Amino acid sequence: MEEDFLKSTVTAALGAGLVYAAIFIAAYIKKRPPIFAGDAWLFAPTGFLLGPTGLTFALFVNIPLAIAHRYYLAKKRNRSMWRSYAPVAPAYCLAVGIVFGMQVHMGEML
User: Which of 38, 44, 51, 99 would bridge with 58, disulfide CB 3.0–4.6 Å?
Assistant: First the structure.
């Protein structure tokens, strides 16, 4: 039980650390950050909930969902997909729901 708690805590720190690393790298090269600090607050609890493999799987499930969401918003706003901003949270929450549902129905962690 303590090992699971420790693994989940480390995964939560890793989830938040990934976001902050991307923000700091973007600031260092003077570019707009790809994701913002609010996403770190979202990645940490989901990393705690899903575990390391679940978090990794959720990030990979998130990629096509986030691209589709960004494309939809760009077309709706009549802007270029590459110049518009789209929040990461809606697609990421859907990806977390998919992965968590898979974990519950499989009876074990991914």
Answer: 99
